[in-house]
Amino acid sequence: MSIAKTVSAAIRRYGNSVDIICGEKTVSCKAFVEPLRRRRRMYVNDSRFPIGYFDNEYKLYIGDKKYPFDSNKDYFVRHDSTVYTVVASEDFVVGDESLYIWAILMPKRELEVDGYDSN
After folding, report:
1. What is the distance between the alpha carbons of residues 69 and 76, in angstroms, rounded to a whole number?
2. Where in the chain are the domains?
3. Closest CA to 67 of 100, 95, 35
4. pLDDT of residue 36
5. Which H or E run contains 14?
6. DSSP string over 49-105
7. Residue 85 contacts by C-beta under 8 Å, 6 or more apart in sequence?
8. What is the pLDDT of residues 2-35, one digit of tens each?
9. Mean pLDDT of all residues belonging to the chain
């Protein structure tokens, strides 16, 4: 069995139940969703995270390579009744083979209407 198949089998067997939402389409699958803890400076897409970015509301997502996130679309992940926005994601590749998709998730927030711009 290849490494990619082993990783996919582990995610399906031990992962959390999640829903991936993109527009009107929802896919139910398994993925690891854990609190994102900062141990050292982290850079994603060569961008430095602002101070206070890591407050354990953010999650690390590790999911099956069959469900990549297209950077041109808005994706959300529902886990334990909380909906998260996909902030950044990439394939984790070893050699020429994609093993899994990792992403940073943040809780989805609705815009607050404060009446400031309304007449």
Report:
1. 10
2. 3-107
3. 100
4. 79
5. helix 3-14
6. PPTT--SSSSEEEEE-TTSPPPTTS--EEEETTEEEEEEEEEEEEETTEEEEEEEEE
7. 74, 75, 76, 105, 106, 107, 108
8. 888 999 999 999 999 999 999 999 999 999 999 8
9. 83
